[in-house]
Amino acid sequence: MLLSGLVACRPPEYTITAEGVAAQVEELRAGAGRATVAALAFRRLGLATFGGDSDFEQVFTVTARRAGEVSVILDGVKVPAERVAASLSSEYIRWTDQDSISVVRVGPERDPMNAWLIWRGAAGKILFLVDAQHVDRFNDVARRMAEPVTGLEVVDGHDMVAVLSSATPRAFRVEGSAHSEVREMANVVGLLPGKRPNEMIVFSASRDHVSGTSAILELARYYARRDRPERTLVFVLYAERTSAPALFDVSGPPENYGPPDDFGALHFSLSVDPTHIIALLHVDRIGEPADYREAMEAGTKGGNERSLAAATWVTGYDRSTLLELMQAARGDSLQPAFGPDPYPWFNLFELLSNAPMAERGVVAHAVGTSPVEETGTWFPDVNAPELLDPAHMAGVIRALTAGIRPVVEGEATPIRLDR
Predict the structure, then answer these.
(1) Helix, strand or coil for residue 109?
(2) Hey, what's the torsion of the CAs at 332, 334, 335, 340, to 10 degrees?
(3) d(Cα 263, Cα 150) in Å, to the nearest integer?
(4) Alpha-carbon distance 361 to 246, whole Å?
(5) pTM of full prediction above 0.85
(6) Which long-range contacts (CB under 8 A, 24 or more apart) does 269-274 make?
(7) Does domain 18-48+193-408 match CATH 3.40.50.970?
(8) In this predicted model, what pLDDT tens digit does every residue of 386-413 receive, in sequence order?
(9) I want to staple 363 with a disulfide (CB 3.0 to 4.6 A). Which of 132, 280, 320, 323 is the partner?
(10) Residues in Cβ contact with 143 at an 8 Å cutoff, skipping those fewer than 6 apart
């Protein structure tokens, strides 16, 4: 790793206060750009750059491949364009009934959307035939298929063409192409070298959230103005989570599409050796406290009464011993308690930005406090100033420093528990 900008003299230790958090929130909302604000803060704090980067931006590209015009001929008859939809990862396709094509028939008794959700992730070439009775549902499927095939890398061979037709053709011919677009994105990453360079603790947030971004910058200030930690600390602000339509200017209302893609978290997880990561804590929305009793009482969907005592929820609390360590280290502190998240039906452990690192076997969890509600905009940010509570946020950040202290100082190591 390339280490740069370390200062010899450290200012007095930093105290996390409501006033400091409020000032940080205001700076992030002032319009300079959260990436710019974060990079400047890391530089002023004397953090090192990460992984050989020349600055604090970890740049990467995202590729999207969108189907253009696709021609379908069934038993010698060309299908009207409005009855054809396609999702192509290949730049060009040319199929006939003589090729190895998987033909999926959705009859009048099946829901085309449910069938499509089953088949959309399958590899190979799929001709998806939808009975003509399902005009409205076919149009729903077509809107979803219009979303580009998007990723850090787009691999040929995941192609589906949907056709609204009641016929079961003996012969068919399908021909079409796709074009690619590339967009550049960037994480902002700062490193505080510890005495153990190959044992790292990662604090992360998505720049979508002012509250999470503020927390990471406050944590960076707190640790940069203390004695050198035993373990190396990494502070990451991921590129904004975004859906492919928003990123690539695809028309259509956002509620027609799925959850935003977290390309920043995915790229970062692939840029590090997971065996060097002791733990990752992703700070999600902590801008406002929540009364979990309401969620629990509504809880025909499930829940855990232990959540009622927790002011700060931790996703996947039973996937490692980290929550136990943090709660024990916090002790009888006046700072907020930790506990399992009270929304198990949302599967937040798999949904939030800790997930890519957790999938690589790392002890990786997300923490949050704000109420989580299912909405058409997929867990909207809490950026409204009247909802952000600096005193609450400061308490949560202080609780994080108290809870994670034994891990930072090398006195304790959390254990991954695979369930």
Answers:
(1) coil
(2) 50
(3) 10
(4) 31
(5) no
(6) 269/356, 269/357, 269/359, 269/360, 270/152, 270/356, 271/51, 271/58, 272/51, 272/200, 274/357, 274/360, 274/361, 274/362
(7) no
(8) 678 899 899 999 999 999 999 999 999 9
(9) 320
(10) 252, 256
